[in-house]
Amino acid sequence: DLVEEHLRTDKNHQIKAVLALHSETSTGVTTNIAGIREAMDRAGHPALFLVDVVSSLASIDFRFDEWKVDVALTGPQKGLMLPPGMAILAISRKALKASQSAKCPRFFWDWAPVLERNARGEFPYTPATALLFGLKESLAMLAEEGLPNVFRRHNRMAEACRRAVLAMGLKLLVKNPDECSNTLTAVCMPDGFDSDAYIAHAHRHLEISLGPGLGKVKGKIFRIGHLGSFNELELLGALAGVEMTLKSFGVNIPLGAGLAAAESYLLHSASNTGQGL
Q1: First and final CA of the chain: distance in angstroms?
Q2: pLDDT band at 105 (very low <50, low <70, confident <90, very high)
Q3: How far is Cα 260 from Cα 164, in angstroms, rounded to an integer?
Q4: Domains 2-145 and 147-273 agree in fold
Q5: Does domain 2-145 bear CATH number 3.40.640.10?
Q6: Does the pLDDT at position 155 exceed 90?
Q7: Which of 69, 124, 113 is nearest to 91 (CA)?
Q8: Nearest one of 53, 12, 52, 19 to 36, comparing CA atoms
Q9: Are the C-beta atoms of 30 and 20 separated by less than 8 Å?
């Protein structure tokens, strides 16, 4: 509603683009991209629609054409399961036309030479060849599993993680369940405990790599990732490590409660989805 209202007030179309994050990595919040598109359509505004899908592509359902996205940007290091080192874009004809009328100087960021060479199967600069071979294999893995199954698996891992966190007596940073990302879970540290110190403790004792809080939530949350090539055993191992290190850090949690909640959900959901045990 706020997006629609704001666009309706822009009578002279000074707003050139609406930018959105599909999955916000630092907080674990998912944005309703389809809803934003609907708001733009209701407002009848011609702005471009640009979406960051860095931590959602190949993990959470994203529909470039159906949602009339003009530019989608991602990297290879999340759902595509590769090291960082490439920028991967999808662009609409509307965005391409807008870029041709842009007057800002550019060279490396110019789409025209990339598209021209792409028609011949070439690249205008030195490409990240090793990553391109890796991307080919990643896409084959995703196709073999099937995107609907990939999305269901990510949803199962995320829901199991969230249930485990709540069973430990901890709180999720994201309050609205519909806005929880299926690629990572942001966990609030109990009062009196510093999450950065806990993250260092967990890594020092069990070599667990947890994400820190950034900005306003620095020292207040830690983040558990569950995306890409990730299964039940990896999640349960991570949760066991989180429970053990929280306990040894002095946080009063019921040891084993999180694991039990995750295991129960994974077993129950496996029979409904055909995934897992």
Answers
A1: 42
A2: confident
A3: 8
A4: no
A5: yes
A6: yes
A7: 69
A8: 19
A9: no
Across all residues in the chain, what is the average pLDDT? 96
Tell me, what amino acid is at 107? F
**pLDDT per position as a tens digit, 142-154:** 999 999 999 999 9
Spatial separation of the C-alpha atoms in residues 70 and 111, rounded to whole Å: 14
Is there a contact between 188 and 221 (Cβ–Cβ < 8 Å)? yes
Look up residue 106 and give its two tokens. Answer: 């550019």
**228 to 8, 52, 214: CA distances (angstroms):** 39, 17, 23
Question: Is residue 246 within 8 Å of 253, Cβ to Cβ?
Answer: yes
Residue with tokens 């934003």: 36
Across the strands, what pairs with 58?
none
Tens digits of per-residue pLDDT, 215-248? 999 999 999 999 999 999 999 999 999 999 999 9
Q: What is the 3-state secondary structure (H, E, C) of 75-144?
A: CCCCCCCCCCCCCEEEECHHHHHHHHHCCCCCCCCCHHHHHHHHCCCCCCCCCCHHHHHHHHHHHHHHHH
The domain limits of the chain are: 2-145, 147-273
pLDDT at 277: 66
CATH of domain 147-273: 3.90.1150.10
Nearest to 246 by CA among 224, 218, 228: 224
Q: For the whole model, what pTM was predicted?
A: 0.93
How many of the other CB atoms lie within 10 Å of CB of 150?
20
Nearest 5 degrees, angle CA 107-CA 54-CA 173?
140
